[in-house]
Design a protein that fits this description.
alpha/beta, two-stranded antiparallel ribbon, TIM Barrel, eight-stranded parallel β-sheet
Length: 271
């Protein structure tokens, strides 16, 4: 079984966001022509043998890029293949916390995601804290991005120490999943992995054959039970991401934990 823990079905307004244009160009896509639908996602999954993709809503300071209601409709297209990650407007902390408590069900929605670079605010900013408290209350993992930012936004907010470390100290029961491997701060990821048992990471935004060498060492060392497969579809295609799987030289238990086992555990997926 293969579970892709980071995907999104772009809305037209997200596809046209100015900061996304360089990323689409790097991946050979035309921002003016891109069209993403649940059916296209399913075809990409089937071509790569991916059983499930966890789709994300996107909230931003200037409005919703993918709203939770739009995410709900996307999941409805194939509820046995898609799960969802709610997003929230952290500039409205009370409303954000209420949304999580009302909409998170642990079945259709399996996590909450907020991206610091979208808000240009590190994860230890006060606006996030009601969100973390709500996630702990309902048992929702909090998913975010660690490491540098590909779009034309600042990367500093993706640094793990001190920003994410503060969160892990203040919320010891919060499960945190950092996407995009954490480069160039892999040493900080290693340090926090040793220190905090509730920190996980996914390989989204990287084809497996292009994973940084120090992340590969992490994945086979202290991070061997913390790393999950992700793509960041449609920025990267699942088949392209998986092409380098054999070169990782994982044994069968390691391979299964990476492709689905840890995701099942973290997101409590009954599949």
């Amino acid at each position: 079984m293969i579970i892709d823990v980071w995907g999104q079905i772009l809305t037209p307004r997200m596809a046209q966001a100015a900061w996304l244009a360089p990323l689409l160009r790097w991946t050979g896509q035309d921002p003016a022509a891109i069209e993403v639908t649940p059916d296209l996602a399913l075809r990409a999954m089937d071509a790569a043998g991916v059983d499930m993709m966890i789709l994300s809503a996107w909230s931003a300071p200037d409005g919703w890029l993918i709203s939770n209601d739009e995410l709900d409709a996307q999941i409805e297209a194939a509820p046995d293949r898609f799960k969802g990650m709610l997003s929230v407007d952290i500039s409205r902390p009370v409303e954000a916390a209420r949304t999580i408590r009302e909409r998170f069900d642990g079945d259709r929605y399996v996590a909450v995601r907020v991206l610091p670079w979208v808000w240009n605010l590190p994860p230890n900013h006060a606006w996030y804290y009601p969100v973390y408290a709500a996630c702990v209350d309902v048992g929702a993992p909090f998913c975010t991005q660690i490491g540098h930012t590909g779009p034309l936004r600042r990367s500093e907010v993706g640094r793990l120490i001190p920003y994410l470390e503060d969160v892990l100290i203040d919320f010891p029961d919060l499960v945190v999943v950092g996407g995009h491997v954490g480069f160039p701060w892999i040493d900080e990821l290693t340090s926090l992995t040793i220190k905090f048992p509730n920190l996980y990471v996914d390989t989204s935004a990287y084809a497996l054959h292009r994973l940084p060498p120090d992340f590969l060492a992490y994945m086979k060392g202290v991070g061997r039970d913390r790393v999950m497969f992700g793509t960041n579809w449609p920025m990267l295609d699942p088949a392209r991401c998986l092409k380098g799987l054999d070169k990782l030289a994982l044994n069968e238990p390691e391979r299964q934990r990476f492709l689905s086992g840890i995701a099942k555990q973290v997101f409590k997926l009954a599949i």
